[in-house]
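Many introductory courses stop at the sequence. We go one step further.
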Amino acid sequence: MAYSGELQAGTKIGNLLIERQLRVDGCGEVYTALIQPPGIRALVRVLSPQLSVPGPGLQQLLGKLQKYANCRNPHLAQMAPLNQMADLKRWLIVTSVGNANSLAERVAQKNLTAPAVVAIMKQALTGMQFAHSNGFIHGDVNLENIVIGVDGKVKLLNFAFAGVSLADRQASLEFQAPEILSTAQPTMGSDIFALGIVFNKLFQAVGNGRFPVGIRRVAEKMSTRDLANRFTSMAGALQMLGVGFTEDAFEDAQKIISRNYENTRTIQIQVDREIRRAETRSRIPLLVSLLILLVLGYAGFKKYSPLLMGKNIGELSTTITTQAVQLGKTVTGIEKLEAAKKLVIDTKDAANEETKRKLASAEAASEGNAVLNEEPKREQ
C-alpha cells in the first residue's frame, strides 16, 4: 500500500502490521504495530519528510539510532533494525514493547502498590543512568514512555533522538524543566526533572502517606524547579534512594499497617454480623404475634364463644406484652453492639496513629542518615 500521509490500520510494511495511530508531533507520526512473526507489540515512529531528507542531519540521526540499537540494557526498550519506506523514503524507528503496559495505563488501572512503585523508581533510575552514561538524553520522559512488563521489569522507550519541538514541549508542559522551556534542547537535568514528576504522580496514585519521607524526598529533589538544588546525575538519586530506604524496614512497616487494618476489619465484620443477627431476631416475635392475630381473626371468632375468645385474647395480650419486653431487650442489645462497633473504629484510629508515630520515628532516623550523606553527594 502506498503511503498517503497516514498509515491505515492493516497496512503492512515488511514484517510490520500497523494497528492504529497514537499521535502526530513535530518529528512525524507514532503508531502501534505488530512485528510478524511472532506477533510482538511495537511502537513505530515514521519520521517527517523534513527529517528524512538525505544529508548530514539525517546521517547524524541514523548514527545515534544505530548506536542506541547496539546498546543492551534490561531497562531500555530494544530497537528493531531500521527500515525505510521506499516509495517516499520515510524512515521508520521501530521499538519493541512486548506485553508491557505504560505507567499511564497502570495508574488508570489503580493496581499499583507502594513497594511496586519503589521498584519502578529503582529500575527507571538505573536505566536512565545507563542511557546518560552512554551519551543518550531521553528528552521526552512521561508516563507513556515508561512501560512495565508482566514480569515487573521496567523499560524506557521513545527517546527523542530527533529532538522535541517547542510546540510538543508545550503539550507536555508539566514534565518540562523550567530551564529548557525556551530552548529546543533537552539535557540530563531536564530528564532528571521529568522523571521526578513521574515518581510524584505514582506517589499520588498510591497515596503519599504510604511512602517514607526519605522516598518522597528523592522525587522532591529530582523535580525541584531550582536547578542548583536538583540532582546533577541519576547516580545521586540512586544513592539517596538507598540511604532513605531499606527494603526490610519498608516491608515491616507495610506489614504493621496491613496487620492493624486486617485485625480491625475482622472485628468490624464480626460486630456487623452480630448486629444483623440481632435485628433479625428482634423481628421474629413481632411476626409471630401478627400471625397469631391473623389466625384468631380468621377462625377464632367463628368457632369460639365470646367468653373463650376473651380468654384467648387475654392470653394473646400477655404473649404480646412478653414479646414486646423481649424486643426492648433486643433493641438495647443492638445499641450496645453499635457502641462496640464505634469502640472498634476508635481503636482502629488509635492503632493507626500509633503506627504513624512509629513510622515517623523510623523515617526521622532515615532522614537523618540522608542529611548526613547529602553534603558529600552534592560535592560529587
